[in-house]
Amino acid sequence: MPQTPKGPEGDQPDEHEEPVIRDKRRIDPETGKVRHPESGSEADASGPDLAHEELVDVGPSEGEGEPDLGVFLSDDDLDLLSGQSTSDELAAERLADLQRVTAEYANYRKRTEANREIERERAVGETVKGLLPVLDDLDRAEKHGDLEEGSAFTTIAAKLRTSVERLGLKPFGAAGDPFDPQIHEAIFQQPSPDVETDTVADVVETGYLVGSTLVRVAKVVVSVPQH
């Protein structure tokens, strides 16, 4: 008959010996605090002296293929569980994060809408540029008295101007306006004792805007102060 294995001392093993239970959970279920295992303590306890004992692990440990709580919990959550921060402090931090994200999203929407409007204005401006020579001809005809009230030509001119205005095209440039080199092109300057600053004396070619987008500068004659 085979011999029954004996213990280290030659004695028979105790069939009723209790297994050694090792709790490797990172969060203490009783205190709720994060455990900080001492180096070497678990390794020493599983040495050859306990080879005859049954080891039962409670909860997953790192490196064994099981999910680690540290992967799912943030540092703030761990601090809350370990008692290093209160729920009110954590709620205040979450509220501040939410407010920051909300403000960033609101700014993003404003920038997006502003850029979209600028692109729309540019598209309209490029579309109506082909009509500007026609509008110039209407302006010259009006100055020469060719647009008689009630004539078919006058009716067509009014309809065309109304159509481009609905697209957002607005004319600018009139005698008496302060001269602005950003929107005016001076084709001629004449000294005048009647002005103290550079002033538009006459508009040779009307300027146009679509919203805040400059489609064409106005060509003007400028009166400048006499020295």
Pick out the low-confidence regions. 40-58
Main beta sheet strand tally, sense and closure: 3 strands, antiparallel
Query: Roughly what percent helix?
Result: 25-40%
Question: How many alpha or pi helices?
Answer: 6
In whole angstroms, how far apart are the ends? 133 Å
Q: What spatial order of strands do you see in the largest sheet?
A: 3-6-7
Helix and strand run: EHEHHHHHEEEEEE
- Kindly name the structural category: alpha/beta
Query: Strand portion, in percent?
Result: 15-25%
Mean of the pLDDT scores?
Answer: 76
How large, in whole angstroms, is the Cα Rg? 43 Å
Apparent shape: elongated
DSSP strand count: 8
What does this structure look like?
- The chain is α/β, with parallel strands linked by helices and 227 residues long.
- It has a domain of 66 residues.
- 37% of the residues lie in helices and 19% in strands.
- It is built from six helices and eight strands.
- The strands form three sheets. The chain has a three-stranded antiparallel sheet. Strands 4-8-5 form a three-stranded mixed sheet, with no helix packed on it. Strands 1-2 form a two-stranded parallel ribbon.
- Strand 1, helix 1 and strand 2 form a beta-alpha-beta unit.
- The chain starts with 19 loop residues before the first strand and ends with a strand.
- About 8% of the residues have low confidence.
